[in-house]
TrEMBL record:
Pfam families: DUF294 (PF03445), DUF294_C (PF10335)
Protein name in UniProt: Nucleotidyltransferase
Domain Protein-PII uridylyltransferase N-terminal: 36-165
Sections of the chain in a coiled coil: none
Annotated InterPro entries: DUF294_put_nucleoTrafse_sb-bd, GlnD_Uridyltrans_N
Domain DUF294: from-to ranges: 203-341
Length: 347
């Protein structure tokens, strides 16, 4: 079925066609959950999302060329970040993308005009297809995430030098950048550079390690899950903040420490195990925890588009509750590992 959806995406010419394919993913996923292993399912869901995004980026480029807006850069790349960058999206995922390009210095203003127009079309199309705008504005319509490589390098240098909390957040987000459309090496090279530059600055790396301890995993000393107490999501847990984000950020930090510029969470986990940074037993527990977080998020994301990151604790069956508690314990163990490494850097 994934192949059938992907084939239709190759010839989609309108937002309506693309939206139909995205909605079909939701319908089919409910059936796939009952018959497929989660690892296989995760790969297929990511493949469909990527096919949608590539088609949108292609149509946005074609429309910009058709309207003769600016100058198309001789080399440019539309890249993705966040859960799609790490190849672990659920059915409903928002937009996390940016653009890098190179061109002659005298053509840069016209190339920026082309890029901004294409970004606006692409973001609007994605929204209409079913990908909400990023609440943090991590999109190519934001100048921070759509730049010439020379401007990107100047921006990166300023963030590496300051180390303010918002700058650290930018660095963590950028570590997930993965090329999806265009000249892949533009994004690949910048990600490799980012990992190396952070690793070469121990004080900055230490501050980033301290950030891994937040937010705290919502699991009490006696194994009690601390669900949301007030508001519309009372009694629910936020699936991303319940240990998943803590694990992904910890693995990013450890990957910087080990100078491993891998892009997906599982690639980082395997590389860190091979490098001896992650003990074998903890590495296995991390892999299992990631599978638990993904399977629960994927299962319940098919039921509601709004508030999709929240799941009522009582909605989970006993096996899922037990698995999630164990995953939370693993997240806390990984946070402690990073904390010990940070302390060692200060000694």
């Amino acid at each position: 079925m994934v192949e059938a959806i992907a084939d239709r995406l190759k010839t989609a010419e309108s937002v309506t066609d693309l939206r139909f394919c995205h909605d079909e993913l939701v319908r089919e996923l409910r059936r796939w959950l009952a018959v497929k292993h989660i690892e296989q399912l995760a790969e297929e869901v990511a493949d469909v999302h990527e096919a949608v995004l590539r088609r949108v980026f292609f149509l946005a480029e074609q429309e910009t060329v058709k309207r003769s807006v600016g100058i198309r850069p001789p080399a440019w790349c539309w890249y993705v970040m966040g859960s799609i960058g790490r190849r672990e999206p659920t059915v409903w995922t928002d937009q996390d993308h940016g653009i890098l390009f190179t061109c002659a210095r005298e053509e840069e203003p016209a190339c920026y005009e082309f890029i901004r127009h294409a970004a606006a079309i692409g973001a609007k199309m994605l929204h209409e297809v079913g990908y909400p705008y990023c609440s943090g504005y991590v999109m190519a319509t934001n100048r921070r995430w759509a730049q010439s490589t020379s401007d990107w390098e100047r921006q990166l240098s300023s963030y590496l030098g300051s180390g303010w909390p918002n700058d650290l957040r930018f660095l963590y987000i950028a570590m997930d950048m993965r090329p999806l459309y265009g000249d892949a090496e533009l994004a690949e090279a910048r990600r490799r550079t980012l990992f190396a530059e952070v690793a070469d600055r121990p004080p900055l790396l230490a501050r980033m390690g301290e950030q891994v301890q937040f937010p705290p995993v919502p699991l009490g000393w006696f194994g009690n899950v601390q669900a949301v107490r007030w508001g519309p999501h009372s009694g629910a847990i936020h699936m991303k903040q319940s240990g998943y984000v803590q694990i992904t950020n910890a693995l990013k930090w450890l990957a910087c420490l080990a100078r491993v510029p891998a892009v997906t969470t599982l690639e980082r986990q395997r590389a860190l195990k091979e490098a001896g940074i992650l003990p074998a037993a903890l590495s296995m527990d991390v892999q299992e925890a990631l599978s638990v977080y993904y399977s629960i998020r994927l299962k319940y994301s098919t039921e509601a588009e709004d508030g999709r990151d929240y799941v009522l604790w009582q909605t989970l069956n006993r096996t899922e509750q037990k698995q999630l508690k164990q995953a939370m314990r693993t997240a806390k163990r990984l946070q402690r590992l990073v904390a010990r490494r940070v302390v060692g850097m200060h000694e």
